[in-house]
Amino acid sequence: MSAHDATRVQAASVPLGWRIGVAVIFAALYGWFLFSAVSNLVALPALYTAQGFAEYIPWTPLVLGVIVPPVAYLAALLMGRGRALSARVVVFAAGLAATAAAALSLYVLA
Amino acid sequence: MTSRDPEPVDETDDDDAALSWAGDDDRGRMTPRLRDAADDVPAAAVEPEPDEPHVAPRAPGERVLQFGTYAFGAVYLAISIGWIFSVQLMFYPGLDLLGEIMWQFGEFLAMVSAALWFAAVLTLTPEGVARRGAKRMVAFLVGALVLVPWPALGYWIGSMQ
Fold it and tell me: Closest Cα of chain A to B65: distance in Å?
């Protein structure tokens, strides 16, 4: 039996409650970054406009900031399917960390 | 000389007796080790037992995959160092406590993002996966592009100009 097959066998034994629990916890963490990005998308254009800098609104980083968290979460959810619980957690954590890094990069580039 | 006089002691024999144990002479003689043809053959030339598992030599593709993994490991280490520098250049722009806590959490995540991505790629491409090498290299490449530490990179580029 290869390591790949062993992983599949382990995944079949993961209780449904654990799988849902991990997904929900990481959804809340990803959700914070989505909430933060949406807040920026709503507040910053109005602030720029009020200051008379409407033409300098950084739309690309603002929109990317909203897109990245749900896309990263869905990608981690799909890639973790059929795997052991530890593998799911690692993939979710990697996606969350990439989301955080992207958020900081977009903040600097904005 | 009377019968009660002690016999003259042969000191040489006593010394030999003191330095040896009964049965020493028999040691090694019970099963004499006979010299045979195998004694003249160097150890390296002795062929392994036929029932030992045969270890297949590593395929060239596996070696390339291993080299690629090490190379991307070095790149990801550089990315981690870049993020450690990056978080020292940034500060939370707001005043609320929750936002400050989550900002610090985000900075921590950014610092460990390269290590987590690397671990995730290794986890998702175990031995036995179809087209394992290509998948692993593409995943490493995507991660290296996504995790570029722009704050530190921008600072270094700006300081050089």
Answer: 17
